[in-house]
Amino acid sequence: MKLKTLPPVPAGVYEDMGWAYFLSPEGNDYLCDEIVGISKQEREAYYATGNRLYTQFVEAGQYILDNNLLKNLGIPANLHPLIRYTWEDDRQLHLYGRFDFAGGTDGLPIKLLEFNADTPTSVPETAIIQWAQIRAAGIAEGQQFNFLFEALVDNFKRLRELNPDKDAAILFSTMQGAPEDDHNIELLKIAAQEAGFETAFCYIENAIFSEVNGIFAENEAGIPIQYPFWFKLVPWEYIATDEPGLLDMLTKIVMRGLAVVLNPAYTMLFQSKAIMAYLWELYPEEPALLWSSMHEPTSKRYYPFVEKVVLGREGANVAIFDESGLLEQENKGDYQGQMKMYQSLAQLARDDASQYYQAGVFFAYEACGLGFRRSKQRILDNAAQFIGHWVE
Prior knowledge:
single chain, alpha+beta
């Protein structure tokens, strides 16, 4: 890995944005004081691969729905009607997602690990912080694969164009107790405002839902205000499993045209890691795909391999098996009851300190931003650091 040590970004950058998390000890540990150097060819490969794979995900999603295979993705059944409805409704825009890739640097091939299509995070780090890092280091602004913020603004504009009958007012919500999620929402709010939206925020616990009138939040005077658009940084499967009554209400709200909910429910097709087994079958010549199956490999041809739960997050409930099929490493978690899928082990780039690197490529209408995560553990989890990049 080509690494460059950086001068610290002035604290005022974080203070001006209201991003207190990144000034905390935890936030300081999370952000690296180095950046990764990549070539122009590597940049173009990440861009082209993200664009190509998104098209394949859409085609695979259509194949799954056409062949009534949705039940095989491990998605709660009460989400299926809304998934099908939003898939067929052109007003339901996929605002953004993030591909997680192994390789792409140091001569390693790019390999898809998963697609965070529903509630991807690390938006501030990718769009703003790593940009501020290269500016502080005297590196030209254009020497980075990073137009994520501009792509988000453009997609919010598309959202308005797709819904000309709705007022441009959007409510953003997260769950309480996750300041890093709040910072992601803050940047999304700014992008929406630049696209002409009026914006508001409330935690999901304080939002008001009516299957007759739509989605509301109280203003400072305590008056409920209706919002035709709602962005929730809350996983769909959490709502389906923990709040089935709310999901039933949201299904009626969306199907009755009372509100557009982002990201739409159909992104669960992409979020489920089970879709990669279908991608492997449908696109055997795609170089970025790893062997993937819903069945544990019976041939050593696919060893070493990884076992994952289909809706796990942040590296939880992931296990690595070695060349002999023996358990080598395992991360415990809260998703042990989920359906499992299996994938060939991809080679991650490593530096001289034996740290592993994983690339995240954002997609918002097109591939639009690159950032890296790194860890001393091969299974990257929520303790992994964010590390930016520059293009040589």
